[in-house]
Amino acid sequence: MAFYKEVYKEMLLCQQAKATNRDHVTGNCSTKGGNVFSAKRIIRAVKRQSLNKNKVYWLTGLSGSGKSTIAEVMKERMGDNAIILDGDVFRNKLCSDLGFSMKDRSENIRRISWIAQFLHGLGKDVIVSFISPARGQRDFARSLFDDNDFIEVHIATSLEECEKRDVKGLYKKARAGEIKDFTGISSPYEEPLAPELFIDTEGVSVEDCVDAILGPEIPDKKTSIFIGRFQPPHEGHFAQVQKLLDEGRRVLIGLREIPKTEKNPYDVEYRRNRFKEIFGSQVEFFVIPESLEGCLEVVYGRKVGWDIREVRFDSQTESISATKVRESMK
Ligand SMILES: Nc1ncnc2c1ncn2[C@@H]1O[C@H](COP(=O)(O)OP(=O)(O)OP(=O)(O)O)[C@@H](O)[C@H]1O
Ligand SMILES: [Mg+2]
Fold first, then answer.
1. pTM to 2 decimals?
2. pLDDT tens profile 303-325
3. Whose CA is nearest to atom 3 of ligand 1?
């Protein structure tokens, strides 16, 4: 969590720095690789990601930067609706006729872009992990999607770090001249100018990188419904709500709308605001209409999936008198 907050701070700084074309850590104008920021662990977010719609996550970066590794962990998190399109897999199959000239690389990306669009159209979350070295190639991919559906993630691990990792031993071969057209050595990599996210993985765990892309994992919350007249809401009610929140529940407060009497003088708005003052957006509300005033009982079937918990307050809370609370409020 702490990391996440830090990341947001960095995003902000980076956005500001980018606006002024300065490196936010050194304060210097960015010279390394043109528009690249050299600060470690910079993650930049441009768009707010709407949570409910399936997306295309386009991971681009040098060989060994971490695209496939991050893609795998993203898929584990996202579940069966997510599909990975990985460079190596396609290079060995659908695109086995292509080489590594820029023309062939563009054809490679063109094919993958259309496959991604097809899968996205079926409602899938698509994780594309391809070096995709040219801006034009990535721009083509982007052009196939609505603005908010395409998340370009620059896995911006430095060439030095990728070469140090040399996962597949390819850098060594490229340096020895055994492989030609190798990205970063003998073939260009054009850094994205405005990716939605920018991640330098050096010294950062894979989990943290995935958190930055997808947001941290939030465990499913069970809902507790808390119904009452709350005339007015008082310490006893607040203690109960706090207890449910402490148990990790989502709390839905059911406010009964009842005719105004001396005993029940507060309208729904007033009572809702009293809870809000204490709990802010941690609690949600629904209103039980006045027409249910004659309501006798709540009936529920067996195994409806909900438990009924009759609240037993401790004696101190039990001794709170709503009448006295009302009196003190006059
Ligand atoms: N935070 C991180 N995220 C991803 N990978 C990391 C991270 N830290 C270290 N690594 C290591 O970096 C290496 C990345 O290799 P990976 O195969 O994922 O790169 P790639 O970008 O898919 O390369 P290629 O384009 O050649 O397929 C792995 O050995 C991985 O364990
Ligand atoms: Mg890979």
1. 0.61
2. 677 777 887 777 877 788 888 88
3. 206
